[in-house]
Amino acid sequence: MDFSQLPQPSERNIAIHVTAAAERSLRGGHPWLYDNSIREQSKDGQAGDIGVIFDKKRHFLAVGLYDPDSPIRVKILQHKTSASIGHDFFRTRLQAAAQIRAHLPDDGTTGYRFVHGENDTLPSLVIDRYGAVLVVKLYSAAWFAHLRELLSALDDIHPAKTIVLRLSRAVQDGETFGLSDGMVIRGKLSESKVAFTENKLRFVADVIRGHKTGFFFDQRENRQRAMTLSATKNVLDVFSYNGGFSLYAAAGGAKSVLSVDISQPALRDARQLFELNANHTNIANCQHETMAADAFEALRQLASQRRKFGLVVVDPPSFANKASQIEDALRAYRKLTALALPLVEKGGTLVMASCSSRIAPDDFFATVHHTAQRHHYRLHEIERTSHAIDHPLRESFPEGRYLKCLFATVD
Predict the structure, then answer these.
(1) What is the spatial distance between Cα 207 and Cα 184, in angstroms, rounded to a whole number?
(2) Which pLDDT score is estimated for 84?
(3) What are the CA-CA distances from residue 55 to residues 39, 61, 63 (Å)?
């Protein structure tokens, strides 16, 4: 594809001086510089220009991509020592990311997150692998000016015949230089749904129109944990989306699985996943039902029918995208816990997940436990889990710690 329409970063970097609080944050390795932390800058900049940040003594602090339309004004690429941002820089970062995930294909997984943004020191950038297809998603317009060199470096590390470009809503709202969300920027796709494997199970994902880049890879390890707890059980999968937890439960020997989601297309995809894996004996022998309903109403309805399940998985979407939504989110978790517990048979297992970085892990786990106690249930924790290996964490970036999951037996 011809990328000649893409902008070039300015040959003159932007020198930026910041507040004392920002200095401390950057010294600690945080990947964001906010607009209100800038005391002075040498010139105005365009998206993708290189911002070089100095402390009060004019010593180098960090370098990153400037984004004039975002409150996160500079996405930090390197701290403490200076760096030239270009092909070689991106190649080094991509190589480091590849090494972390190198074992996954050997484990029967060809679908996974290849670059996890800030946590792989490439902020506002996600690259996901779906078998032979790579999906590059930009969360900042600053990446347009570096897309050619990024793709060139990607060819050195993980060459792909097919690359799909996805753009966040914020990026789509601005100048996109002739590019659009879901555009195939290299190779061809005969259809939007792409096949891949996860722990040897077969999946498909719509990489053109699907949520995020088409699939939620972050729950892979939790899906496998649920599989080990599913044998001979009736399983309820709430907020099932396209049936990831449902399929794993069936593979683990579940007697039956009920997938609940408000989206009929998502449930259709879940049914297709079961058909796609019909050669797996356990999956073929599992009775799979789907229920299109609001999750809260579905839980009430199942309770009124006195349904019981040996394993109940509740994996809701993020309830708190901003600080003002935290209390509402905690109320929603309390409500879901209270509705789910009566559906778990005595000695059965409850799996409760949260994917909001705004909700602290301790607050989430405490909410689930306190709700259980108020309703006269006792939870015996099996495990608390966090991110899969392809969604690494950085201590200097607490905002990136979003996923937490509780596995517990119920009395």
Answers:
(1) 10
(2) 96
(3) 11, 6, 12
Please state the domain extents for the chain: 14-79, 87-196, 216-410
Which residue has tokens 């607050």?
363
Query: Does the domain at residues 14-79 carry the CATH identifier 2.30.130.10?
Result: yes
Q: Residue 81 and residue 61: Cα distance in Å, rounded?
A: 7
The token duo for 15 is 């020198």
CATH 2.40.128.280 fits 87-196, yes or no: no
Band (59; pLDDT cuts 50, 70, 90): very high
pLDDT of residue 1: 76
* Domain 216-410 superfamily per CATH: Vaccinia Virus protein VP39 (3.40.50.150)
- Kindly report the pTM of this predicted structure: 0.95
Residue 2 has pLDDT above 80, yes or no: no
Residue (of 145, 210, 138, 147) closest to 170 by Cα position: 138
Q: Catalytic residues, which ones?
A: 355
Rg (CA), the chain: 23
